[in-house]
Amino acid sequence: MVKDSGAGNDLKRENERLKLANEELNEKVRELEETLEAIRSGEVDAIVVTNGEGRKVYTLEGADHPYRVLVENIREGALTLSHTGMILYTNTRFADMVKLPADKIAGTSILDFVCPEHQADMEDALREILNRSCRSRLRIRQGVRGSLPVLISMNPLTTDADTKISVVVTDRRKDEDRIMLQARMLDAVGDAVIAADTKNKIIYWNDAATKTYGWEPEEALGRDLIEVATPKISHREAREIADRLKKGETWTGEYVVKHRDGHEFPIYASDAPIFDDDGKLIAIIGASHDITSLKRTEDELRKKHDDLNAAYEEITATQEELRQNLDELTRAEKTLSESEEKFRVLFTQMVEGSALHEIVYGASGDPVDYRILDINPSFECILGLKREDVIGKTSKEAYGVDTPPYFEHYRRVTETGQSEEFEVFFAPMNKHFSVSAYSPEPGKFASIFSDITDRKMAEETLLEKDHMLAESQRLAHVGTWKMDLSTGDVSFSEEALRIIGLPPGKHEYSDFRDRVCPEDRSRRDAEIQEAIEHDKPYRSEFLIILPEGSVRHIRAIGDVTKDSRGRPVTLTVTIQDDTEHAEAVATLRESEEKFRTIVETANEGIWVVDANLKTTFANEKMARILGYLPGEMPGKSALDFMDEEGRTLAAERLKERVLGTRGSYEHKYLRKDGSEVWTYANVTPLKDAEGRFAGSIGMLTDITERKQIEKTLKRSLAEKEILLSEIHHRVKNNLAAFISLLSLEGSYVETPEGQALKKDLQNRARTMALIHETLYKTRQYSEVNMELYLSTLIDQVVNSYRSTQSIRTFVDAKGITLGLGSATPIGLIINELVTNSLKYAFPLDSIQCQADRKEPCTIGIRLIKEDGTYLLIVSDNGIGLPKDLNIRTTKSLGLKLVNFIARHQLRADLEIRTKNGTEFVFRFKERDHG
Amino acid sequence: MTMNDPSILIVEDDSLIALHLQELLQNAGYDVPDPVASGEEAIEYVRTSPLPDLILMDITLDGKLNGIETARQIEKISDIPVIYLSAHSDMELLAREGNSAPTMFLAKPFIWVDILQKVKKMLHR
Amino acid sequence: MTAEFEATLEQRKTEHYVLRLYIAGNNIRSHMAIENVKKICEEYLKGRYELEVVDIYQDHSKNPVDLVLAAPTLVKKLPLPLRKVIGDMTRKEKVLIGLDLVPRT
Fold first, then answer.
1. Within 10 Å of residue A465's Cβ, how many Cβ atoms?
2. Which of A897, A923, A891, A895 is nearest to A910 (CA)?
3. Distance from CA of A831 to the nearest CA of B (A)
4. Which residue of A has its CA nearest to B11?
5. Distances (CA, A) of C20 to A461, C56, C79, C84
């Protein structure tokens, strides 16, 4: 069986192989048969036979052979298109142009080869091809990225069957180069260079063009020149230019173009034509630049002229407008009233509810009701009823009421023919309506309901606002008045009337103006006029006289409102009764004046300095005191007017001021001329708002004179003292002279009595002299040092009565000084008593004065002061006074004197004690001795 | 002394002069009470004591009043004639006081005959 | 139609076609052929065919394998098997059968 399978398999394989071969052969035969069939049936144009040596083509139809060769070999690209633009045939040249293999071209659309910017034009051309051949310059795609400028010529080929298109495509690079070259040369000039083809499509656009016209190259290229750099010239002008260019001439001139962003500007342009080798116009190149600035000046002048014209024209136009409006209105009125149809439309469309009725008369012939003839949709809404429900019914029936609504108005309107307007409140809808009723025909009336709810609310709000305004005006005592500048009518707010003193209601402007004080009237008028004419705010103050006679001060502020043309329309003024304030201001001013007057006319210098002693104010008097002009003072430090000593003092005093204490003191200043001036100052420190030391205010008086007087007085006093001293001296001398005289006389006195007398006299004189001497010595003129005086006196007396006995004396008058008035009598008293004691108290033969006496003979004087009373005790320890001595009646002059003097001058009480000798005790008070 | 003798009050602050004057006038037959030294004492005397017929008034006195002022005060009580005793400087005071009434004065130092004569004269008025 | 062929038909519906049309110059028959082939391709093979149009006069490079080729001839190169249709392609069924888009009866 193994043999069988192998042989079997081989057979199978052989079988298969034969089957396939058979099939192939069958196929081949079939094909060949088909080919023959095709040839026979004339469906074939040519046959290609390939053998070992090559291939050969046998054409079955040879009629178009020369044409075919031509087409295959020409420089241009040649295409045959179906009428839809599908490429049916292409020659190799075209395939080269578009850089594609030829077999990939047929079957595609021509549009696939046309650059995008030309697509639309190509489509148009294809559509129109039967009417028009197309010859255009465009660009075709070259390979993937490139493009080629070509001239395409398309012509229709019409056969019985259908239309095909024959296309010839010519390479235009050379032409393009020519244009480019020209353009590049113009580039160098710096102008905007634009080149456009014969179809006006932009083919060149340089940077300067971009700058000038605003379009980027990609936006401009391919676009129509008219769109991009639109010149504003007339058609005739454009044609003229085109003609010239076609002739080969260049054209130069100005025109206005539009920039990309829309603004127009003038340019100076120079256009030149470009021709191809055949002398055919292929492009126009234009060079241009912006001449705006040059034009501007021209334009401005022109504009001004134009403005004037325009204004004139406007006025004329406005007049014209008005006239036209009037005509229109008349026409409109006529049209409306003429056309019932229009009414119909209006009726249905209007927003207001409208209804037409006819009056219904009762049996008596009186109007009793009205029938609803027609209502519009808006009325339906208002009623809430449908048209069909109310049409034809009377109002009573339709609305279900007893009385026809608003019947009185309607009846009147219908009877008189006069229209009426009234407002109603329609409760069911809670709305306000303004009803307008008129009679279009006798017996009929129409009513129009306008919803004025909003308006009513607005009115109420406005009313409220008005009230609020009036209220606030009243509270603030501020009023407003307005004047319509065209009519002269005025209106016043409530408060304004109150202020002016006019009763509520309507008033004329003169009512107000009459109240203004005559002196202020013309000024106020001028101020108002000024505001109106010169568009300035109005500000005025004036006095008015109220009816009851009182004068009020009014402050007014206002302005003028204008219309859209700038003409003044209304003057609005706010007024305020300012009297109290004005009075207060006036009073304050008066006070200030008074204060200023006081300060300026004060007899004292007023000097205000700050915390650092810098002058902030000095009145005239103060300046004069220091010898400066009032203007020179402020700013200078007070220290500038002092010497070294003064400054030190000032620094000290400043400390006190800072603490808040006042001070009064004398102070020396230096005047402008360097001389000194003494002042007496009362200085009060000042505080600022925070309570800190802020300086001082001083009232200064010039006391230089007084000081002079003081000095003079002191001097005079000193002089007088010297004088008095001198006097005492002289008096003493005179007495001394007298004593001397007595001495001289004495030498001629014989009797012992005479001698004794002389001595007595001398002593008395000496006693008197001693006082003056003591005074002179002690440089006193009235106070006598008693210790000194009495010591000297007692010695003097004792010495003059030199006796053989030794008499002791003592004086005790320590610290006592007495005036002349007391010292003198005391001196005299002591003289007499001591003399007496010396004479009589110690007789030689008396036991008490023996040498063995225990106590020495003593005469003593004691002068003591006790509580304002003086005690003068003159004593001796002698034999005492005679028992029968009566001091009053005694013949002894000395004692008599003692008594008299004591009583008369000293006013002393005298007590005589005779215990241990003799003691005279005088008790006296020092008295004012004149 | 009898009641009939004219009495003369001496107003003088210097004791010696006063005593001297008293002695002199007493010897001349006048009634002379003890002199007083001040204006106040003089007025007191005039008010309380029997009125003297003449006053000899020193210008400068003890106390607050001078002689002229004292005389004025006394004038209110009675119209006793006054002779002023004055030192030279008192003349100025007299002039200042503007004394309109005719005055008699005795200048110090006294001339005693002059005193007696003037006293007699005044008492006769 | 056999089930097998149905299956093949289905397959055909998605396959990519490469076609070459030989024409002889710029004449009516050539135009008709191109138009007709294009029409059929757009109708039955839209988006999945490649059509090459070879002018036997201009393009000498693309020689058919056969000894004899008439123009116009449409050759289905892909999908295999290789098929030919001769004539101006006006008879649609002939073309469709030739492209194996329709079964041969």
1. 10
2. A923
3. 14
4. A904
5. 92, 12, 12, 10
Please report residues of B whose CB lies closer than 8 A to that of A896: 19
Q: Contact at 8 Å (CB) between A872 and A860?
A: no
Helix/strand/coil (H/E/C) assignment for every residue in A817-868: EEEHHHHHHHHHHHHHHHHHHHHHHCCCCCHHHCCCCCCCEEEEEEEEEECC
**Per-residue b or e along B68-98, where b marks 16 or more CB atoms closer than 10 Å to that residue's CB:** bebbebbeeeeebbbbbbbeeebeebbeeee
Task: Please report how the helices A786-800 and A752-778 are oriented relative to each other, as an axis angle in degrees rounded to 10.
Answer: 160
Cβ-based contacts under 8 A for chains A and C: 121
In this predicted model, what pLDDT tens digit does every residue of A330-365 receive, in sequence order? 787 776 666 666 667 777 777 788 888 999 888 888
DSSP tally for chain C: helices H, then strands E = 3, 5
Q: Whole-angstrom distance between the N-terminal and C-terminal Cα of chain C?
A: 9
* CB contact (8 A) between residue C26 and residue A68: yes
Distance from CA of C16 to the nearest CA of A (A): 17
Residue A11 CA to residue B103 CA, distance in Å, equals: 212
Nearest residue of B to residue A896, measured between CA atoms: B19
Contact check, Cβ <8 Å, C87/A38: yes
B37 contacts on A by Cβ (under 8 Å): 904-905, 907
Question: Cβ distance A116 to A74 under 8 Å?
Answer: no
Best B11, B12, B15, B60 member to test A by mutation, with max A CBs in 10 Å, is B15
**Tens digit of pLDDT for each residue in A416-453?**
888 888 988 887 778 888 888 988 888 889 888 888 88
Confidence at A588, pLDDT banded by 50, 70, 90: confident
Task: Tokens for B46, please give them.
Answer: 């005039």
Residue C81, preceding bond cis, omega within 30 degrees? Answer: yes
- The tens digit of pLDDT for each residue in A243-273 reads 888 787 888 888 888 888 888 888 888 888 8
C-alpha closest to that of A256 among A204, A213, A215: A213
Cα dihedral value A451, A455, A457, A458, nearest 10: 160
How many helices and strands (H and E) does chain A possess? 27, 34
By DSSP bridging, strand A538-545 and strand A551-562 are: antiparallel
The residue of chain A nearest to residue B62, with distances taken between CA atoms, is: A929
Show residues of chain C in contact with A50, CB under 8 Å: 63-64, 66-69
- Tell me which of A266-270, A316-320, A741-745, B87-91 is least confident: B87-91
Sign of CA dihedral A50, A53, A54, A55: negative
Rounded to the nearest angstrom, the minimum Cα separation between C1 and chain A is: 20
Interface of A with B (CB under 8 A): 821, 825, 828, 896-897, 900-901, 903-905, 907, 927-930
Helix boundaries (H) for A231-291: 235-247
Cα(A927)–Cα(A621) distance, integer angstroms: 50
Chain A residues with beta carbon closer than 8 angstroms to that of C55: 89, 102
Q: Is the ipTM of this complex over 0.90?
A: no
Query: Encoding tokens for residue A21?
Result: 């071969």
A764, two tokens: 């008395």
The shortest C-alpha distance from A16 to chain C (Å) reads 18
Residues of B in contact with A821 (CB under 8 A): 13, 62
pLDDT one-digit tens code per residue, A827-853:
989 988 998 888 888 776 665 555 555
Q: Where are the beta strands (DSSP E) in C1-105?
A: 17-23, 49-55, 68-71, 73-78, 83-86
Given CB atoms, is A157 within the 8 Å cutoff of chain C? no
Contact list in C for residue A78 (CB cut-off 8 A) is 26
